[in-house]
């Protein structure tokens, strides 16, 4: 019973944590293959060889697929991710695993990449290659296509959220804003969000807006409409309080006799 | 006794009690012998209100943790089902449904005794998503609101065919808006 | 005292309300017969009846309370009969517009007209704007009316006195506020708030409608506004009926008037606040609603019942118990109304519990509880007033007639009718189904029985209404 009351009080305080915003660039295929298990593959990292489960069993993982020869989206993708994570000021609650899906990439290529982004000493970031890349990309639902005329892979910028059980809880495709990233961070920690809004247009007044820094919803313009009736009523009553003395019935004849 | 009968019985007991109390009070006013009226009404009323508040607080503390929002929140689902409601049917698929070209996938089969998740939204007006078991009892539900996805997690304890009915009035076809899935 | 013109316009109001009441009961019985498979209405026919029934009932039993408040207020302050005429005219225009939009235009969104349903047009194109404008006309009429009544109260009492705040600080203040004035004030403030909400809701609807879709609304916000307005209005309507009870019950029972005390003052001031957030319980199954709102919804729904319902019920129990009471139809109706209110309240608390709501939300349990405290609660409070005032018009409260059969029919019919809703609701039968799928056989059986019980209730009502209307009509010929 004490537990119940405590629970209730906490829930009352939790005014804010029901949903977050999908943010700009929401892509339908992000909802494919959710809650599937990520493949168990060996990883070669700068600090030795480990298997993927050893990683996610310690802390949840955000998995990004890139290749170092990429002249397209890979570099902006990583830079954007790095900037966004820095702006969130996120602490060591999860790892960012960057895996090359290009068999031609070696560990030293990846180390160079890490160096270029100034991430070589950042413990949160892990750069790795794997001998079983096709198993890994298939389990993540990531399908790059080799374009021999351009000598490049045709691919999405895919970020895969993996919780401590190795389940894919969320995917993000493309260069995404902080909102979306925060949504992913919460999902890889298995924080259940009861609901999320879909992208829509022309909507001026919605009830809540999402604060990416705290990851909480805050009342927005639309909520004013819920409070407005009370505000207007109170204003009317205040006006009455000032005006009504003038309306008072003065003479005794005007006031009907009270009947008892 | 299942929870449906329990709810009805609690209500009927309370209602009959109130009715009898009313009759008793009415009777007492017909031919009162001597002065039977209640003494110290202020204190008795105060006492009763404190008791009532306490009962309500206890009920609150017991029932709030049982709210559906907290059910299976920490259990990742073994199956994910996307549901788009529209006048007057439910489109269900294991894959995310494209709102511009909504189409259902294969028929839905869910595992028994494992958490599953429904992601429910609407393509037009507000709808309801009520899941009925094979005895036509409402097991769980959520609302389907356009522009938002509601996530309903549940663990089905019994295998069988489950029927879905729309539980928010949505137009002329409302009573025939239904679908079903199998749990095994 | 009530002027002749006030008597006349009150009579006109009572006759209008009771005529609409009978029509709306008949609509309800037709709906139940259709659900029981006893008659065959088209879905269109069913849902236009449903929309008309809901809006008409909630409308007339709100204004019934206002008519009573205006009439009894004439004991304390000067009351404008013109205000009642103005509201009556706008109400009649509004109801005619509403009925045209439903019966001619086939508009059938139910009373909730949840956004964006009115824009998914499955009826005559003009019916959507006509429906929305009919609500605007009703809303404006009632807004002016309730502000006007509040102004009348403030002619006699200061705002603080109207809220009985002087009773909170002093034991025996110089000016005492009758409970009737306090409850009327609190309810009117609530109604003004509801109507402002309705205006905002309608403006948002019109903005989208007349901008041809370049402005879109948020379905979540619109749903909140809809229930804020609809639920709260239904609640406040009941409290208007309770105000009538506080004023008349002791008087017709031959007991001393209810005295204002600090706890009655406190209770009703609290009610004014609690009742504003209880509407969140309509949205428990909208998981998108912030969790905190859901919790506040359950808390407010539980505790809104204490100040208003529990305090009032106890007052009535202490008034009646062990005291020789002069029973007449007036106080019998008030007394049964309190019992109906309590029973409906239990049904409401069960449904307002989130863990129950998951199997009760939008089943017939919902109409079960609100029909209990309307048909067997607020309607009886207002009818008690109508009965009393009709006898005032006739010049005598003394009637030799015993109403045992009428009351018996009303009790069996009324409670039998709502019991069928409760049984079906607990058996998971959804509300607002024009007909039921085969596996919900219990829905059909209970619907047929409900139609039977509702007919008994209707017969009892006709017997009472006939006498009221007969006496009211006479007022038009007096001078």
- Which CATH first-tier class of the largest domain in chain B would you pick? Mainly Beta
CATH fold annotation of the largest domain in chain A: Glutaredoxin
- Report low-confidence residues of chain B grouped into runs of 5 or more: none
CATH topology of the largest domain in chain B: Immunoglobulin-like
As residue ranges, the low-confidence spans of chain A are 8-21, 210-215
Reading off the top of the CATH hierarchy, the class of the largest domain in chain A is best stated as Alpha Beta
- Total individual domains of chain B: 2
- Radius of gyration of chain B, whole Å: 24 Å
Structural class of chain B: alpha+beta
Number of discrete helical segments of chain B? 2
State the shape of chain B: elongated
Secondary-structure topology with pairs:
The complex is a heterotrimer of chains A (260), B (184) and C (479).
Chain A: H1 2-13, E1 42-45, E2 48-51, H2 52-56, E3 61-66, H3 74-88, E4 95-100, H4 107-116, E5 125-129, H5 133-140, E6 145-147, E7 152-154, E8 158-162, E9 168-173, H6 178-188, E10 195-197, E11 208-211, E12 216-219, H7 221-247
Parallel strand pairs in A: 3-4, 4-5
Antiparallel strand pairs in A: 1-2, 1-5, 3-8, 6-7, 8-9, 11-12
Chain B: H1 3-28, H2 41-63, E1 79-86, E2 89-93, E3 109-110, E4 115-122, E5 127-132, E6 138-144, E7 148-155, E8 160-165, E9 178-183
Parallel strand pairs in B: 1-4, 3-9
Antiparallel strand pairs in B: 1-2, 4-7, 5-6, 5-8, 8-9
Chain C: H1 4-35, H2 43-73, H3 81-104, H4 127-156, H5 159-162, H6 166-169, H7 179-210, H8 219-253, H9 262-277, H10 291-304, H11 306-320, H12 329-351, H13 354-360, H14 365-394, H15 404-426, H16 441-477
């Amino acid at each position: 019973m004490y537990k119940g009351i405590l629970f209730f009080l906490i829930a009352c305080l939790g005014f804010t944590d029901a949903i977050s915003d999908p943010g700009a660039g929401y892509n339908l295929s992000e909802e494919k293959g959710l809650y599937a298990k990520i493949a168990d593959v060996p990883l070669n990292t700068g600090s030795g060889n480990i298997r993927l489960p050893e990683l996610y069993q310690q802390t949840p993982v955000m998995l990004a697929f890139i290749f170092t020869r990429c002249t397209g989206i890979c570099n902006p993708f990583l830079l954007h991710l790095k900037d966004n994570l820095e702006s969130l000021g996120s602490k060591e609650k999860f790892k960012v695993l960057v895996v090359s899906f290009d068999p031609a990439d070696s560990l030293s290529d990846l180390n160079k990449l890490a160096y270029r982004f100034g991430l070589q000493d950042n413990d949160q970031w892990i750069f790795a290659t794997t001998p079983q890349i096709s198993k890994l990309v298939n389990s993540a639902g990531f399908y790059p296509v080799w374009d021999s005329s351009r000598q490049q892979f045709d691919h999405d910028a895919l970020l895969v959220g993996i919780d401590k059980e190795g389940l894919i809880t969320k995917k993000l495709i493309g260069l995404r804003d902080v909102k979306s990233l925060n949504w992913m961070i919460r999902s890889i920690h298995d924080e259940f969000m009861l609901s999320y809004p879909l992208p829509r247009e022309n909507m001026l007044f919605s009830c809540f807006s999402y604060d990416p820094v705290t990851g909480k919803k805050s009342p927005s313009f639309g909520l004013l409409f819920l409070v407005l009736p009370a505000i207007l009523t109170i204003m009317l009553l205040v006006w009455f309080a000032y005006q009504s003395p003038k309306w008072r019935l003065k003479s005794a004849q005007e006031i009907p006799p009270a009947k008892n | 006794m299942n929870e449906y009968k329990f709810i009805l019985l609690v209500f009927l007991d309370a209602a009959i009690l109130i009715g009898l109390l009313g009759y008793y009070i009415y009777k007492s006013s017909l031919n009162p012998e001597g002065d039977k009226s209640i003494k110290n009404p202020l204190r008795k009323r105060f006492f009763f209100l404190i008791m009532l508040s306490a009962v309500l607080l206890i009920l609150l503390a017991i029932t709030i943790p049982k709210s559906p929002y907290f059910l299976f929140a920490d259990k990742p689902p073994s199956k994910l089902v996307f549901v788009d409601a529209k006048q007057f049917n439910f489109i269900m698929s294991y894959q995310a449904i494209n709102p511009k070209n909504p189409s259902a996938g294969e028929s839905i089969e869910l595992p028994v005794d494992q958490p599953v998740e429904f992601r429910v939204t609407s393509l037009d007006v507000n709808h309801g998503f009520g899941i009925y078991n094979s005895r036509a009892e409402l097991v769980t539900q959520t609302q389907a609101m356009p522009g938002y996805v509601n996530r309903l997690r549940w663990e089905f304890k019994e295998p069988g065919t489950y029927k879905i009915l729309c539980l928010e009035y949505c137009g002329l076809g409302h009573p025939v808006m239904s679908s079903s899935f199998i749990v095994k | 005292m009530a002027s002749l013109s006030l008597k006349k316009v009150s009579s006109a109001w009572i006759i209008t309300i009771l005529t609409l009441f009978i029509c709306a009961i008949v609509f309800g019985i037709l709906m139940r017969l259709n659900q029981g498979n006893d008659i065959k209405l088209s879905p269109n026919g069913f849902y236009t009846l449903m929309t008309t029934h809901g809006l008409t009932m909630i409308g007339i039993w709100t204004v019934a309370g206002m008519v009573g408040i205006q009439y009894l207020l004439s004991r304390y302050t000067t009351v404008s009969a013109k205000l009642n005429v103005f509201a009556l005219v706008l109400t009649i225009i509004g109801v005619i517009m509403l009925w045209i939009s439903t019966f001619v235009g086939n508009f059938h969104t139910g009373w909730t007209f949840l956004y964006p349903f009115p824009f998914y047009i499955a009826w005559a194109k003009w019916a959507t704007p006509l429906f929305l404008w009919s609500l605007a006309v009703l809303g404006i009429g009632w807004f002016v009316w309730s502000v006007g009544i509040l102004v009348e109260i403030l002619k006699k009492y200061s705002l603080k006195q109207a809220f009985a705040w002087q009773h909170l600080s002093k034991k025996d203040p110089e000016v005492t506020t009758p409970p009737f004035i306090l409850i009327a004030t609190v309810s009117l403030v609530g109604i003004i708030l509801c109507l402002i909400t309705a205006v905002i809701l309608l403006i948002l609807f019109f903005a989208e409608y007349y901008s041809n879709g370049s402005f879109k609304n948020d379905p979540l916000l619109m749903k909140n506004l809809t229930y804020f307005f609809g639920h709260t209005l239904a609640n406040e309507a009941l409290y208007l009926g309770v105000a009538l009870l506080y004023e008349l019950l002791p008087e017709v029972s031959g007991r001393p008037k209810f005295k204002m005390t600090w706890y009655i003052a406190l209770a009703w001031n609290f009610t004014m606040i609690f009742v504003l957030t209880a509407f969140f319980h309509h949205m428990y199954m909208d998981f998108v609603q912030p969790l905190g709102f859901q919790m506040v919804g359950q808390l407010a729904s539980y505790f809104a019942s204490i100040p208003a319902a529990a305090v009032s019920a106890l007052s009535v129990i202490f008034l009646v118990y062990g005291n020789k009471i002069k029973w007449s139809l007036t106080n019998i109706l008030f007394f049964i109304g309190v019992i109906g209110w309590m029973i409906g309240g239990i049904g409401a608390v069960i449904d307002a519990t989130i863990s129950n709501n998951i199997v009760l939300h939008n089943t017939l349990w919902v109409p079960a509880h609100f029909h209990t405290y309307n048909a067997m609660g607020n309607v009886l409070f207002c009818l008690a007033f109508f009965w009393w005032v009709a006898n005032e018009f006739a010049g005598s409260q003394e009637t030799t007639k015993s109403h045992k059969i009428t009351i018996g029919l009303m009790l069996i019919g009324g409670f039998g009718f709502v019991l069928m809703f409760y049984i079906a609701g607990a058996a998971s039968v959804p509300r607002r189904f024009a007909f039921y799928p085969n596996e919900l056989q219990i829905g059909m059986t209970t619907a047929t029985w409900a139609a039977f019980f509702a007919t008994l209730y209707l017969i009892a009502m006709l017997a009472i209404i006939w006498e009221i209307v007969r006496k009211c009509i006479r007022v038009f010929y007096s001078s």
